[in-house]
Amino acid sequence: MEDVQEELDSVEAELEVVELQIAELLQKQTELTSRKNALLQQLGEACDTAPSSSSSSLSSASTKSSGANSVMSKKEMQLYDGTDFPWSKAVEQHLKDSFRLSTFRPLQLRAINLTLSGKDLFLVMPTGRGKSLCYQLPAVCSNGFTLVITPLISLMEDQIMYLKSIDVPAVMLNASSSKEHAKTVLAGMMDPKAPFKLLYVTPEKIAKSKMLMSRLEKAYNADLLSRITVDEVHCCSQWGHDFRPDYKLLGILKRQFPKVPLIGLTATATSSVLKDCEKILCVSQPITLTASFNRTNLYYEVRVKESDISASINDIASLITDRYKDQSGIVYVFSQKDAETVSSELQKRNIVASPYHANMEPNDKSHVHRKWTSNKIKVIVATVAFGMGIDKPDVRFVIHHTISKSVENYYQESGRAGRDGLPADCIVYFGFSDIFRISTMVVMENVGQKKLLKMVEYCQAVDRCRRSLMAVHFDEVWDDEGCNQTCDTCRYANDCTSVDISTHARQVVQIMELAESMNEKLTPLKLMEAWLGKGPAKYRKNLQTSTLSRLQCEAVIVRLLLQGYLREDFSFTPYTTYFYMKLGQKAALLKNHTHTLSMKMRTTQKESAMVKAASVQGKAKEGKRSVESAGDAPVSKKSKKSKTGLP
Ligand SMILES: Nc1ncnc2c1ncn2[C@H]1C[C@H](O)[C@@H](COP(=O)(O)OP(=O)(O)OP(=O)(O)O)O1
User: Fold this and answer.
1) Nearest CA to 459 among 530, 423, 418, 406?
2) What is the pairing mode between strands 170-173 and 328-332?
């Protein structure tokens, strides 16, 4: 038995390495695809003489192929914007009469024509842009019914309620369907008169109900299964941000019903995630339509979160009472406990707020949701459990009290603001200790750390447009100018200076080396304290401590982590996971005194001067030390904390 266990351990370890390698390759693939798409776009624009609305990288909706063989030229793709298909009259009539809409939004008609032509399609469009129409309208223009796989019952209920209100017959089957209802639906699937045009099911139902599969097979043979829609298609991939195991089994649909076109919908998926979905769903050569992710009505901002909890709460409260007076919004927090405490702190400051998290009774959750939707509650303080299916148009602010675990998650969560197209703000509070709280939470996820560090990079960047940083994640090419000052980095571009942090970095590395020489592990907090000349003296004996403010020290440590001079190390107990700092691969470079390191900081002139002065002082001391033997450095007086101070 022991041998088996040993072999299992070794196989698992090997598997983990392979998974990491795959993750890295997928990341590389994303970057290359992004580059390829940018180049293709340039080529397309250079060759194409016809004026095209998709020529601006910022406002365009683009069409890409995710499969190697599914490249369609721009011209070929434009053919699908036409209105001379056999179904075009019916499409137009249903758009107006059934859906009561006058025109299509970008990419909707193209998607509809492609799916009605029998092509497999992935449609990547930001939330609220109108993905549903792209399968609902084809459903009413086709024989039989469309099968729709949706992860949440509440989403199904919303869709069915809406479809009923416009007289489009739709039904659902899920674990709580009564026997009677299931019987009627199963019979309806075989009825050539199609008593319903859309059948919504959960992925679990596909995985578990043999009866459903058998009926689908019969409907397929009778040409009554017109289309398969996989909503939130990114849930198939564990590289995505919302993996659901039952989605992994959906490949059965295309294997059993190869002639039925599939349409996968998502608001967030990178090309590597889509590639993975393609394999899982067994679709070969799907066409991917990607609408621009640029939400021009949203303003993005990152604020520094101080270690003093009440400072960020006060800041959030004053934003809500002043800037967002009488407006509706969401404050996202890290944990259920945070949801309770932040909500009660806001209430104490006379803000009508309510918590929302997974541990609440379902009735309480829907009660809070309803009151917020009807504006009786102004602010919902929620964990990410408050997610899919939020369709409130007038959310004027989404504030993240804690950073999201990835840029994709942040885009999705903050994107709940401004669905009505009117201006709205997305503000994230970037706190040092939050990085490590989240890190221990995502440590088990395959590329969890990597994604988190990308989010940290997004927050720390003060010299890159926030939109263009996000665009990379969606393989888009946005230019900073198009931002039009609707992010803090573009708005305050002139307040940013490059600061030499080489000396500071060396001080940190020396503290780490000292700890390692004592076989001690330093948590980020202990490292910080030692560097600031606090905590046990053994961690800093003979070493120079920092003259920077705490926030500045935090910024430097984060930079070192992002650049590989430091790295994470985890330790697991049965109850918790601890995060430690370790020297990263690049730390050795700092031994060479010609090696310099700089970072961009958004500082007031005074602060910028302070970092530089500390740097010069440090260099002078280093020089002196190399002549004299190193003595215990005096702990200098710390600077006053800066609110706006750092990246
Ligand atoms: N062509 C159109 N013209 C005007 N309104 C439209 C059009 N298409 C869709 N809409 C409306 C219907 C909905 O109220 C709203 C959002 O559509 P919906 O299909 O729910 O978005 P979505 O599916 O992309 O968002 P989510 O990702 O949140 O599910 O837009």
Assistant:
1) 406
2) unpaired
pTM of the predicted model as reported, rounded to 2 decimal places:
0.69
Interval between CA 542 and ligand 1 midpoint (Å): 64
The one catalytic residue among 131, 205, 365, 378: 131
Ligand 1 atom, smallest distance to 104 CA? 1
| Nearest protein CA to atom 18 of ligand 1, as residue | 130
From ligand 1's centre to the CA of 70, what distance in Å?
27
DSSP string for 167-236: T--EEEE-TT--HHHHHHHHHHTT-TT-S-SEEEE-HHHHHH-HHHHHHHHHHHHTT-EEEEEETTGGGG
* Strand-by-strand arrangement of the 395-400 sheet: 298-305, 424-431, 395-400, 328-332, 379-382, 353-356
CA 69, 74, 77: angle at the middle one, nearest 5? 75
Q: Which of 133, 155, 200 to mutate to test the pocket of ligand 1 (most atoms within 8 A of CB)?
A: 133
Rounded (10°) CA dihedral 474, 475, 479, 482: -40
Dihedral (CA of 330, 331, 334, 339) sign: negative
CA of 419 to the centre of ligand 1 (A): 9
CB 431 within 8 A of CB 558: no
**What average pLDDT does this structure show over 437-454?**
89
**Ligand 1 nearest-atom number relative to CA 388:** 28
Residues framing ligand 1 (Cβ under 6 A)? 101, 103-105, 108, 125, 127-133, 267
Q: Which residue carries 């919302």 as its tokens? A: 242
- Give me the half-sphere count of Cα atoms (radius 13 Å) on the Cβ side of residue 250: 35
Predicted-assembly ipTM surpassing the 0.90 threshold? yes
pLDDT tens digits for range 130-186: 899 999 999 999 999 999 999 888 788 889 989 999 999 999 998 888 999 999 999
Per the annotation, the verdict on 131 as an active-site residue is yes
